[in-house]
Amino acid sequence: MKVKKWNQKAIIGFCFGVVAVILSASGAGIVAFVLGLLSFQEIRKNRAEHKGYGLAIASLVIGSIWGVLLIIAQFIQRF
User: Fold this and answer.
1) DSSP symbols for 36-62
2) What single-letter DSSP state applies at residue 24?
3) Half-sphere exposure of 11 toward its Cβ, with a 13 Å CA cutoff?
4) What pTM was computed for the model?
5) 71, 37 Cβ separation under 8 angstroms
6) Domain residues for 25?
7) Is 1 a residue whose pLDDT tops 70?
8) pLDDT in tens, 58-77
């Protein structure tokens, strides 16, 4: 039986997502989304070798929500 390894991009993406929420950092939210997307694709292709699917999904969700909030904030700020 092969031991599954944690996907590093999923872990780093989740960390960036947490940093984005805590520090209100827009760049960290974008990085979280991109790393979440990349890790999600890697894990989906090699599900038997990688784990971290939940972290990849969390990175995608946090990054997406953060992006939407930034767009709303820019829209509100113009008025």
Assistant:
1) HHHHHHHHHHTTTTEE-HHHHHHHHHH
2) T
3) 6
4) 0.85
5) no
6) 5-77
7) no
8) 999 999 998 898 889 889 98
**Which residues touch 2 (CB under 8 Å, ≥6 apart)?**
48, 49
Q: In whole angstroms, give the CA distance from residue 79 to residue 68.
A: 17
Identify the CA nearest to 61 among candidates 33, 39, 31.
33
CB-based burial, 45-68: b 16+ in 10 Å, e otherwise: eeeeebbbeebbbbbbebbbebbe
Q: In the chain, how many domains are there? A: 1
CA–CA distance, 1 with 32 (Å, rounded to integer): 32
CA dist., res. 38 & res. 43, Å (int): 9
Phi, psi of 47 (to 5 degrees): -60, -30
pLDDT 10s digits, 5-21? 999 999 999 999 999 88
